């Protein structure tokens, strides 16, 4: 038995630190910032959208219509970024799980866009479906280590409209904030229609958006048509846009970390400037995610031993005056519970607690963000919970300093009979997966077996708060309309 309380979801458990840590001073951040501005002014960024080029030309950017390359003067960049909010709220389905980006906490989600699942009933390894995503979403709704939703796996059975079906599966299975991955202007308009249904109207959507949307740039130095036009639609509606760049060292970006980060930031800042010129004050999040390539095969590797510069992307986003999202805890391991997958996840999640980004993506997938198994997300959840307490200070009120208890016991006594001990002993004895406490002591079980039991228990027995039936029906109608128009 898994021994989980499935009567209600776990309380949200964001990461954070009670200690102030900063790794880069203003001089070093200014040097990176100046390099980004130099790329924007000298090299430029290519925009694949005529609509975006019109916006940029109208506001004074240097636009080459033939090539689509846009160059930005530093004062134009500064003015546009000055309109963007530094913090804002990410709403939830019913308002009870909203996220305040000014809180100082780091809100976590799963890894995203997995391309395979291990079927929890048959053990078959296969492409994921919308039903799989719905089941995984129920797990994400339950787990306190997940504070907002990503499509952990794709709804691969839904074809061209899969990103809209992913939102449909999510809103019907979790009340948490969604971050979708919708691309394309028409697709984005359908997503805005869905979000408006959930929010209860266009003004409510703008005040408390229950979704944000991840938009990727293309390396090197391209803002593609589908991405930037979707971003403009979401920004117009007041839905936060999270721009992500994934420069790969030595292939789609310079082989040096500083060069790759500068290039990736040029993409992010160019896209943000475009959105701010079109819709000043639109909420934007930046997600710099430089990655490594195996020099022998050019294949993506997620967690090298050398983490130099790990803290730079988040601090540089803040230096530009915007909230940050950061990605951690990828693993090249193909199987849950291996030394490799545990070491790579534990190392980066522990470090994430002191970086200070507003959002991050960490847990749930193996095999370079491709494979989902229920046992792996539960093992990751266990590691995440260790990190959630690692950088917290001890409570120092009278109850926790326990001076009266120490006086009562005195030299040579013991504390087992003290009411204070009964109040606090259980919390100090929390144990990892596979360490079970019975009446005769601690029993050790295979952690993978226990993790699988817990994952299956959530999938099969946890029931999230249902979405209002009328809203659920309206989402179904919108998805059907999108299928008919776009599928």
Task: Give structural attributes.
alpha/beta, 22 strands, four-stranded mixed β-sheet, 487 residues, TIM Barrel, 17 helices, five-stranded parallel β-sheet
Brief synopsis:
This protein is α/β, with parallel strands linked by helices and 487 residues long.
Record the SSE blueprint.
Layout lengths: L25 H17 L2 E3 L2 H9 L3 E2 L5 E3 L2 H9 L6 E2 L8 E2 L6 E4 L5 E3 L6 E2 L3 H13 L5 E2 L12 H10 L5 E4 L4 H15 L2 H6 L3 E6 L5 E2 L1 H13 L3 E5 L11 H22 L5 E5 L3 E2 L6 E2 L10 H8 L5 E3 L11 H14 L6 E5 L1 E2 L4 E2 L1 H17 L7 H4 L1 H7 L9 H10 L6 E4 L2 E4 L2 H15 L7 H18 L1
Parallel strand pairs: 1-12, 6-18, 7-20, 9-10, 10-11, 11-13, 13-14, 17-18
Antiparallel strand pairs: 1-3, 2-3, 4-5, 7-8, 15-16, 19-20, 21-22
Structure description:
The chain has 487 residues and is α/β, with parallel strands linked by helices. It has a domain at 89-392 and 467-486: TIM Barrel (Alpha-Beta Barrel), CATH 3.20.20.480. The protein contains 17 helices and 22 strands. A 5-stranded parallel β-sheet has the order 9-10-11-13-14. Helix 1 (26-42) packs across helix 10, helix 4 crosses helix 16 and helix 12 packs across helix 16. The mean pLDDT is 91.
Strand content: 5-15%
Give the uncertain stretches in residue-range form. none
Largest sheet report: 5 strands, parallel
Radius of gyration (Å): 24 Å
Report the span from N to C terminus. 43 Å
Say which CATH homologous superfamily of one domain is assigned: Trimethylamine methyltransferase-like
Q: Estimate the helix proportion, in percent.
A: 40-55%
CATH architecture of one domain: Alpha-Beta Barrel
Number of helices: 17
Quote the average pLDDT.
Answer: 91
CATH topology of one domain: TIM Barrel
Q: What is the strand tally?
A: 22
The first-level CATH class of one domain is given as Alpha Beta
